[in-house]
Design a protein that fits this description.
alpha/beta; Carbamate kinase; eight-stranded mixed beta sheet; 34% helix
Chain lengths: 417, 417
Amino acid sequence: MSRLVMKFGGTSVADIERIRNVARHVKREWDAGHDVAVVVSAMAGTTNKLVAWCREASVLHDAREYDVVVSSGEQVTSGLLAIVLQEMGVTARSWQGWQIPIYSDGSHAAAHILGVNGEEIIKRFKERREVAVISGFQGIHKETGRVTTFGRGGSDTSAVAVAAGIGAERCDIYTDVDGVYTTDPNVVEKAKRLEKVAFEEMLEMASLGAKVLQVRSVEYAMQNKVRVMVRSSFDDPVKPKTDKNGQPVGTLICDEEEILENQVVTGIAFSKDEAQISIRRLADKPGIAAALFGPLADANINVDMIVQNISADGFTDITFTVPTADYDRAKAAIEKAKAAIGFKAMEGANDVVKVSIIGVGMRTHAGVAASAFKALAAKGINIRAISTSEIKISILIDAAYTELAVRTLHSLYGLDR
Amino acid sequence: MSRLVMKFGGTSVADIERIRNVARHVKREWDAGHDVAVVVSAMAGTTNKLVAWCREASVLHDAREYDVVVSSGEQVTSGLLAIVLQEMGVTARSWQGWQIPIYSDGSHAAAHILGVNGEEIIKRFKERREVAVISGFQGIHKETGRVTTFGRGGSDTSAVAVAAGIGAERCDIYTDVDGVYTTDPNVVEKAKRLEKVAFEEMLEMASLGAKVLQVRSVEYAMQNKVRVMVRSSFDDPVKPKTDKNGQPVGTLICDEEEILENQVVTGIAFSKDEAQISIRRLADKPGIAAALFGPLADANINVDMIVQNISADGFTDITFTVPTADYDRAKAAIEKAKAAIGFKAMEGANDVVKVSIIGVGMRTHAGVAASAFKALAAKGINIRAISTSEIKISILIDAAYTELAVRTLHSLYGLDR
């Protein structure tokens, strides 16, 4: 029978009643004949409390001990869900990261999964159809045997890695939304749920602020060809809604080749977490970019879009963006290095937004960018900076125009229909 | 340098401030040159909350999953204490039961420790004087690799087992009292702290209601010759009180041979958790005891003192005690089996108390029992039943006489001095 991974987040397991609801979802799939591995997060609020204790214990706490403390939250949920499943007549057993094991590297508090050994779980599927209830977010460092955690949202990655480890047909991520939308439905009423999204597209959407899945989980799914479905945990656990084809309502994130009707543009994402800094009249000479961005790297500030104008009379202008939270620090770092860099003026703005047009179809369709610029110009929206990749065009504009720009682009590429 | 185990209970680690206080105790011993392993319980209240969740999940919850859930409490404390120690400049690392490992049998929720592998901890003592912060109460089943717990108070046993595993010179159990007393100081003002108690004596005291140590931890200490010291966690962590010999204030539980000045009687214990049942005029024939106590065993009721009178005209009387909580159930079970047993009448009382006189010196001193009976008779105290062992005399009396009897015996054996 086909194997299935189901993942539930902290809100879905916040108390015993909700854990019972999760168990009904699991029982449904188990009754339908699937061999099921469930991945669970800590009960909502638990991880925050544990993190606060670590901070209270020491501001500069050892990440290895932090991992010991915070990983306890998932342990509680896995045991409780196993108990509830057993009471419902479903064979079940809990598993911690170290028991499976889920191996990771040693980057404590933000570890990367190296692989999941699915042997014992598969053996128990075969022997007694035992549901594996697995603590998300946690693993074990292969060399030291210490507990590791994967950072916020890491349970998504756990679920995908378990799916890869047991060769699951699909990994269902239950969230508070019923799928991935063409854009934020709070901004564009006509936003539509996407039936399928390619891994690459989802990767851009995840990193651009469509907060449905952790970026790393999408990367892991893409590398290991794990089909991931985003679906709603609020759906009826016994008789979930289905679409016109009888499939569960949700968005399947899969290989490009599985998507038959490719759109040129799949979605419009936007991120308000951007601040713009422009440096005027830098000497246009080798090494100037290094002199400028070195101090930012030293301050551990991520630089996103970078635009450099063509040089005129030996001087140039550079514009780039940083996360809003780092805006003041970034300006201070550059100001401090002003003599070493050598420039005339620094300008900046943190009331800006990055709007992105995403679609694997862009690879084979020219003119997507040109039509976007034209449509925005027609609405009087000024473009501050542009950066592009194979399947994405990002445009920096004034934050006041966010809704107008997103709606305009959503219509332009036929996503309203 | 000598190795030391220090154990702190839930009240001592109830919040970060108290954990900091525990760390100061540890740092004191570490600074003094000891290699230290600390065993900690869950933060006060945590285990109760986790147990309540398991019950809410299912009344008949799987003990294996219960163990997964409740063992998370100690995990949190061990990580937090390691963080606090590190901040104080003490090299420290947390250890869960499965990491050391602390092997146990498979009696989930009440598992017995089979042994502790101290190798890695000793290695780290030698390499970098690293303090081992160990989660109490939990181990791992050697065959299945599942997490086990040791039942309430199990952290005491963890501490003693760790001490045996690393060959510690002493295992210090920090409690809310500064030692073991000749009797309950709330009853006898003149009760005195004992400097030393033999394992066998402590075993009787622990099982008789001197609630300082878990019985199993004393058994483990006796079998493995681990010297255990009961001392106060309220003592100043930097400069703890010392006695006239410069030794820390507390009670050392040790081998009889280490106690030079042996008293005949070491202490007077009492237990109010007793109810008396008397069966009148049973046919005095083979198998009658089995017929009587079989139904109680089937109902899982522990029978403590058993007294059978000499037979007269083919009939006999039997008196025994059961825990107060089981009094009604016990009477009902016997009533139900009345036809099979065959007796004339059943009488009972649950306003009784068992007073016990304890001392290894009794082995070599005759007349202890006789003097007790005489002293109690002089005070008009009626004896309902008597049972004795090599180092103990237990006497069942009316509860109203508890204080009078305890004070009388405390004076009689010179414990007031």
